[in-house]
Amino acid sequence: MSLMTQERSSKIKRGGRKERLALRAAKPVLDPCPPGQIGGTYRPLSETDLKSIYETALRLLAELGMGDVPDNLAKTLLAVGAQDNGKGRFLFPRALVTDAIDKAAKTFVLHGRDEDRSIEVGGNKVYFGTGGAAVQTLDMDSRIYRPSTLQDLHDFTRLQDTLANVSWYTRCCVATDVPDNFDLDVNTAYALLKNTTKPTATSFTVAEHIDPIVKMFDIAAGGEGEFAKRPFVKAHISPVISPMRYGEDGVDVVFGCIKHNIPISCITAAQAGATAPATLAGFLAQSLAETLASLIMVHSIQPGYPMVFSNWPLVVDLRTGAFSGGSGETAVLNAASAQLSNWLGLPSGVASSMTDAKAIDAQYGAEKGITSLAAALAGGNLIYESSGMTASLLGASFEGFVLDDEMHSNTYRALRGIEVNEENLGFDAICDATLGEGHFLGGAHTLAAMERDYFYPSLADRVEPRTWAENGAHDAWDVANERARHILETHHPEYLSAEQDKQIRDSFNILI
Q1: Domain match, 305 and 210 both
Q2: Which of 41, 211, 253, 396 has its CA 20 to 30 A from that of 21?
Q3: HEC string for 20-75
Q4: In contact, 355 and 364? CB cutoff 8 Å
Q5: Residue 230: partners with Cβ closer than 8 Å, 6 or more residues away
Q6: Given phi > 0 = left and psi -120 to 50 = alpha, else beta, which region is 249?
Q7: Is residue 334 part of a domain?
Q8: pLDDT number for residue 457
Q9: Below-70 pLDDT ranges, the chain
Q10: pLDDT of residue 26
Q11: d(CA 209, CA 256)
Q12: In 10 A of CB 457, how many CB atoms?
């Protein structure tokens, strides 16, 4: 047993419940599976497949084009070479598309207010984070869904602030108890500033809300104009409405965000069989064309502007029309989407780990594990919706957040793979064990690998059945409930100074 393990064991025996929970929540000193592992080994599409889908997307943009182009966007599109066909659609020649791809930002930094929490997006690194706009919260007491509140949003933000594998945080629920849209956007932004220093993301209902909320960000950043120098919030925008048309409100928000140097995630969220073809190949072609239309829009406003190429394939159950976020089709489509984006050299954003389960049960674990692992193995740079989301994105769960965080550690460990070198091959260790004690327990080779190569879960149960029964026969829901409660009881960060908080409250209608 290593010294580190002996110390842990000693603390577990001597400490109380609070100390045990803190120990279990802590990452090891040497983390065997940190965020940012390398993906890309799972390739559901062949090179021929990639080219065929891309060529179809180019044809769609050149021959069908995009409809409902707002006047402000029409002006910038025409200036970079788009064509108005006179029938209400704008066509994008191949040369324009390739120019937008060539000049797109290939990597960029998502800043945290704490620079140590910043991450670089792009390349082949994989990060899990959040997304979603759940209107219901899985109540920790009743275990029944209820409308999400502003207090829930603050609590979710505090909770995830402690979770190492949530690399950036987008508000995961909508405060349904805030009826005014401006107050909703303001209080959502405030919850992010108050409760975390990770890179964050939010959305703006309309473009008119951006200017005043940026003033709030400036207060947190240290003064007027400071936020734009190092933006620590990105915007989630859906400027394209499937099939193949722009949405005016989303387009206006894009213009407003670029004005303030807010990085953007332009999200295409077509649904197979509903707003896109039911065939998976046809879906990928249309969805790629639509996300490229977002990129061309950004390119026409400011070439090379930081944009996450967020091509999110969504699936519906064609028997009922119900959303199906935990399906095998969702897994392979999001993996293929990540592969396509990375093949084009664009920072990829996909959506996975969106279970349809309502409870924290076997369906929950199976669907989250399958879909999130597939997206990670395919090399999705930012994997949205990956923490805490339940009930086909209608719900968010505190217990889900902590369980998913541990799941992501296992996924990162799988991505890390196997380091093959002379020491790890262990020739001498095999000889020593074979000719010596006949086992590897306690050997120097084993002790060296113990913390370096293995991840030890703090929530998953590995004891034998009798001990499990004697300890209360708790399931994952029980264990995660206890962990989430402990975090919410003890973690109350104050990331805004008293002066900053007062200045914000004097300027905005802060409701909590």
Answers
A1: yes
A2: 396
A3: HHHHHHCCCCCCCCCCCCECCCCCCCCHHHHHHHHHHHHHHHHHHCEECCCHHHHH
A4: yes
A5: 111, 221
A6: alpha
A7: yes
A8: 96
A9: 1-29
A10: 53
A11: 9
A12: 12
